[in-house]
Design brief:
By secondary structure, the chain is α/β, with parallel strands linked by helices. The protein has two domains: 6-229 and 441-470, Glycogen Phosphorylase B (Rossmann fold); 239-435, Glycogen Phosphorylase B (Rossmann fold, 3-Layer(aba) Sandwich). Helix content is 43%, strand content 13%. It has helices at residues 15-32, 45-52, 73-79, 81-89, 108-114, 126-141, 163-166, 177-192, 206-213, 244-250, 270-283, 321-324, 338-342, 356-363, 378-388, 406-418, 420-440, 445-470; strands spanning 6-10, 35-40, 58-61, 97-101, 118-122, 195-198, 226-228, 257-261, 286-291, 329-333, 347-352, 369-371, 392-394. The strands form two sheets. It has a seven-stranded parallel beta sheet with strand order 3-2-1-4-5-6-7, sandwiched between helices. Strands 10-9-8-11-12-13 form a six-stranded parallel beta sheet, sandwiched between helices. Strand 8 (257-261), helix 11 (270-283) and strand 9 form a beta-alpha-beta unit. Helix 1 runs parallel beside helix 2 (45-52) and helix 11 crosses helix 16. The structure holds uridine-5'-diphosphate. Residues 15-16, 19, 234, 261, 263-266, 290, 335-336, 338-339, 355-358, 361 line the site of uridine-5'-diphosphate (UDP). Its EC number is 2.4.1.-. Belongs to the UDP-glycosyltransferase family. Keywords: Glycosyltransferase, Transferase. One of its GO terms (molecular function) is UDP-glycosyltransferase activity. It holds the Pfam family UDPGT.
Length: 471
């Protein structure tokens, strides 16, 4: 390689966005000899701490978004664009490429101004990307609201999406401004990006990835090269595997504990929280449950606040719950070392909101799931896991539509922890765990895709530099 590449990565606020971006940065430094500068807008102390622990990338902290007024992330990132522009232009060296996450896509013109290539880090799966790429077409073709559309949304060469079950919430209602903002960024992907880094791997989604590359299928909508480089997840850090939780886990039988968590910001209604508590207690299975105070607004209400009062959520549990379950499980308020818990041999199930990082952390540890989607693309992920990959169970009616009752929760927990069906899911999960590990090995599909991306970045940079010299 002629000279070292330097990636500037723009990361949207929120722990769920930060974690994969930090890991991408580390992969580029470690495996491709990049220098990496990550620009963050930390919205909590926890985010700032997570970012500054990363020693091998430069971290530039920009002012946090104003979360006092409600606004969707696309709008927030649009408002923050000028701050990011000033920070990139103030760098000692001009970066050789810009990488943004989905919500940062409106910052692509900054790369054009600097004469450098621009890439999207789509920290999700290929099926969701396929839907996003087709969104502008669906927007033109579907009459009325998607939510009222009875027919599935057809994506060439891929599994179709049922609007009422699989489609991201903000795309369901045209009267919501977020719908139009989302279609706007979706339409920019094929027009403006030089490549897409995907947090999946070839062997996990072979058909969808092939469709993305086939000009008769999804390739009709986007010819941008796609690099499946995943699973990119935070590694297990042994110094986080100490303390009461791990002392307790060490004493439990292999694969006997179900971990219950709703990501960095998912929150439940009080009624739902009570049903989960009873469901866990009735199931008589061992558990670790990360709890937050219930939401009275939306399920993502806690997304920008991983800090908070540790005692607060406990008072919402059914009376006597902690006492009655003291030999069965642990309740952890607000935040737990999820990767370390999922990789502990005593953990055998995960009741999850199925954010994509949590999903990958479950897949790479071979832990079968109960999918409990709350918001965003979690609905798509839930269907992928339960119906396409066959590694999860789900409630009869999705949790965002109606409170799932204790009896059904008890049955699902027993099913994945002790039934024959659970064993089948576990076996499939273990195969996926092996396939993920292989993809990341030297010569594996994701390892190779990352090298191809680096080569593409270098050649795009040279091409643009030549054009700039000629002009
Ligand atoms: N996470 C964690 N401890 C918690 C909750 C979340 O370490 O108590 C981490 C989790 O391991 C994952 C990320 O936060 O890496 C959540 O990302 P995901 O995409 O699953 O969901 P989001 O938070 O974006 O909804």
């Amino acid at each position: 390689m002629s000279s070292k590449q330097h990636a500037a990565i723009l990361c949207s606020p929120g722990m769920g966005h930060l974690i994969p971006v930090l890991e991408l940065g580390k992969q580029l430094v470690t495996h491709q000899n990049f220098a990496v500068t990550i620009f963050i807008f930390p919205s909590s102390e926890a985010e700032l701490k997570a970012a500054t622990c990363t020693k091998i990338c430069d971290i530039v902290q920009l002012p946090p978004p104003d979360t006092s007024k409600p606004a969707n992330l696309i709008v927030r990132m649009r408002e923050l664009r000028h701050v990011f522009r000033s920070a990139v232009c103030a760098m000692k060296f001009t970066p050789t490429m810009l990488i943004v996450d989905l919500f940062g896509i409106e910052s692509f013109p900054i790369a054009e101004e600097l004469g450098i290539p621009k890439y999207l880090f789509f920290a999700s799966n290929a099926w969701f990307l396929s839907f996003v790429i087709c969104c502008p077409t669906f927007d033109m073709e579907v009459e009325g609201n998607f939510v009222d559309h009875k027919e599935p949304l057809k994506i060439p060469g891929c599994r179709e999406l049922r609007p009422r079950l699989d489609v991201i919430d903000i795309m369901l209602d045209r009267t919501d401004q977020r719908y139009h903002d989302f279609v706007g960024i979706a339409s920019r992907i094929p027009k403006c990006s030089d490549g897409i880094l995907l947090n999946t791997w070839k062997e996990l989604e072979p058909i969808t990835l092939a469709a993305l590359r086939d000009e008769n299928l999804l390739g009709r909508y986007s010819t941008v090269p796609v690099y499946p480089i995943g699973p990119i997840i935070r590694p297990n850090e042994s110094n986080s595997s100490a303390g009461k939780v791990f002392d307790w886990l060490d004493k439990q039988p292999t694969e006997s504990v179900i971990f219950v968590s709703f990501g960095s910001g998912g929150a439940l209604s009080h009624e739902q929280m009570i049903e989960i508590a009873w469901g866990l207690e009735f199931s008589q299975q061992r558990f670790i449950w990360v709890i937050r105070s219930p939401t009275v607004t939306t399920a993502d209400a806690a997304y920008f606040t991983t800090d908070g009062d540790v005692e607060g959520p406990l008072k919402y549990l059914p009376e006597g719950f902690i006492d009655r379950t003291k030999n069965l499980g642990l309740v952890i308020p607000l935040w737990a070392p999820q990767v370390e818990i999922l990789s502990h041999p005593s953990v055998g199930g995960f009741l999850s909101h199925c954010g994509w990082s949590s999903t990958l952390e479950s897949l790479t540890n071979g832990v079968p799931m109960i999918v409990w989607p709350l918001f965003a693309e979690q609905r798509t992920n839930a269907t992928l896991l339960a119906e396409e990959l066959g590694v999860a169970v789900r409630s009869k009616v999705p949790p965002w539509k109606k409170v799932v009752e204790r009896k059904e929760i008890e049955e699902m927990v027993r099913m994945i922890m002790e039934d024959q069906k659970g064993l089948v899911l576990r076996e499939r999960m273990k195969k996926l765990k092996e396939s993920a590990a292989k993809a990341l090995e030297e010569g594996g599909s994701s390892h190779n895709a990352l090298s191809q991306f680096a080569k593409h970045g270098e050649s795009m940079y040279m091409q643009l530099a030549n054009v700039n010299v000629r002009n």
